[in-house]
Amino acid sequence: MKNNRELPVAFTSEGNQLIGMLHEGQSKKLVILCHGFTGNKVEAKRIFVEAGRAFAAEGMSAFRFDFYGSGDSTGEFSDTLLSHNIANLNDAIEWGKEQGYEEFAVLGLSMGGATAILTLADTPAQAMVTWSAVPDLEKLFGSYVDNVHELAAQVDQHEHNGWIIKKEFWHDAIQYDIKKALAKITIPKFIVQGTADSPVFVQGFKDFQDIAMPPADFMEIPGGGHTYPSPQHRRQVIRQTLIWLKRHFL
Description:
The chain has nine helices and ten strands. By secondary structure, the protein is α/β, with parallel strands linked by helices. The strands form two sheets. The chain has an eight-stranded mixed sheet, with helices on both faces. Strands 7-8 form a two-stranded antiparallel ribbon. Helix 2 (82-98) packs across helix 3.
């Protein structure tokens, strides 16, 4: 694999400094990678690093960055909102345009997949890829916490796996309808889901197939977990995504 330049980047979104890493390719096409909830621009087992390098080696530049309150970016995780993520992604696209990139694909993992869907329902791009995209925020939260509506009404913040989540995150997130947004997207889409993920995601993947407007391709990763933690599954999801991008984006 060719060694392309990898450059640290700082850019501004909503007045806040966000930090990313650019993998330089040879074309004017840029793939923007959006990490999941509690994740960062490296993602689990460095899957975003591996993906960024693989894309750049084939000519597409790749840009992975930390949302507000995550990774190296400004802010506290407890102050994150899905609305911030959407604004951050829009500003990442604008940053790419300022660098001279002319066409954009967005790849999102988990909550990053939901962010990609919600953003590209209204923001022009040329292609979209989701890995284990969150399909329904209310069902997802309900699978983690009993009586989530009551909890959000009574408790200002909740601890989840060591992360502090404020009720503002919940109230902000449930205003968004991911499936309705997906139905609006007309650009080529590649939706990937591991079969060993939790039921909310597996069922959501099936629902997506009934909702998505062509052109849309779907792929199951047999035995694949939520973030594709095994080397075999990481290689598979990156390889199949690269094949798809070369067909629909490069």
